[in-house]
Write a structure and sequence with these properties.
two-stranded antiparallel ribbon, mainly alpha, 3 helices, single chain
């Protein structure tokens, strides 16, 4: 396959801009050069769509998800500093506590009630 420079040399001979008396091409030479370039572009056409790239991205994504799931299943049961197993997630309707402690000793305990409804008016 020839590149665009070779095609231009074949169409116009070995003349270059430096060979001309002035620094500009004539209008006819510029239009002829444009026709050769446009003909080369339209002759090549568009490359057909390839499924390789999207397929490779999808396969890599599936591999990452699968490896993350396997790694998650192999992780040990979470344990805090005292060696106590961190409890499971509460069942539906079960209250849950969230505790927060600062280095200064402030401790905040929230009790989360899943039955709480903000829009209900208490009589």
């Amino acid at each position: 396959m020839t590149d665009w420079r070779t095609r231009l040399r074949e169409a116009f001979g070995n003349t270059t801009v430096e060979d001309a008396d002035d620094d500009k091409l004539s209008r006819e030479a510029a239009l002829a050069m444009r026709r050769v370039v446009l003909a080369a572009v339209t002759a090549d056409g568009e490359a057909p769509f390839s499924w390789r790239s999207p397929l490779a991205v999808g396969a890599a994504l599936a591999l990452m998800v699968a490896s993350g799931m396997v790694a998650g299943l192999r992780l040990p049961v979470p344990v805090d500093e005292a060696g106590v197993t961190i409890p499971r997630a509460p069942d539906a309707g079960e209250r849950r506590q969230v505790q927060f402690a600062t280095p200064g000793g402030t401790r905040i305990v929230w009790t989360i009630d899943p039955e709480f409804r903000l829009n209900e008016v208490i009589p």
